[in-house]
Write a structure and sequence with these properties.
It contains eight helices and six strands; from the N terminus they run αααββαβαβαβαβα. By secondary structure, it is an alpha/beta fold.
């Protein structure tokens, strides 16, 4: 009896591989992956080549800053190397994308430390999975910090949820023996919002952190 080969679908193998590759990206389903693959097919060779070159270049030239763990194409990163910034104040964030959002405000002129995650024991993420040890080294040894500057304050800018608070408490305890001032971003009612739409946690923080007028 002749063996029947399974159907490979209507697309050539190279297109199927491209769809499969796009489908591995976070937040990309199969249908979106197919649309992206067909965009590549319709694009000119120059456009498709530019995309491939950009991916190749970012993988070969971008790395983590040896001081703060931000993504960078130089060592140290531009923020750590900027002499106009106050290297004695370190703001701690969970991911590089958080740093980008904070930088866009233009309100912070210190430097950063990226944890590359947060504590989540239920998901198997412990202290060894984040860069808290590197933060402690920067605080304890000025030569490990940007431009050899001694640290005077660490600002916790972590997400205001259970995992973020757990991580913040761990870092505060880790730094407790250093006598460094540890602060966190203020919480409460966001500007332009209404009390009726605020959740209980936001209202509790707004009351606890109220300020004089």
């Amino acid at each position: 009896m002749r063996r029947v080969e399974p159907e490979k679908g209507p697309y050539p193998d190279s297109v199927n591989r491209l769809v499969d590759a796009f489908a591995t990206l976070p937040g990309i389903g199969r249908r979106t992956a197919q649309r992206l693959a067909f965009w590549v097919l319709k694009a000119s060779k120059d456009e498709a080549g530019a995309l491939a070159e950009a991916i190749t270049r970012v993988k070969s030239s971008v790395h983590h800053c040896p001081i703060c763990w931000n993504i960078a194409d130089q060592s140290p990163c531009r923020i750590c190397a900027d002499a106009s910034r106050d290297a004695s104040v370190i703001m701690v964030v969970e991911q590089p994308k958080d740093l980008v959002n904070l930088e866009q405000t233009g309100m912070f002129r210190g430097i950063y430390h990226v944890l590359m995650g947060r504590l989540d024991p239920l998901d198997g993420v412990g202290p060894d999975s984040i860069t808290a040890g590197d933060l402690l080294a920067r605080v304890s040894d000025p030569s490990r910090n940007a431009r050899g500057t001694a640290v005077s304050e660490v600002v916790l800018a972590l997400n205001p949820d259970m995992e973020g608070d757990t991580t913040g408490l761990y870092i505060a305890e880790l730094l407790s023996s250093t006598k460094i001032q540890v602060t966190r971003l203020a919480r409460g009612l966001p500007s332009g919002s209404q009390i009726e739409f605020a959740n209980r946690a936001a209202l509790s923080d707004a009351i606890a952190l109220r300020q004089p007028i």
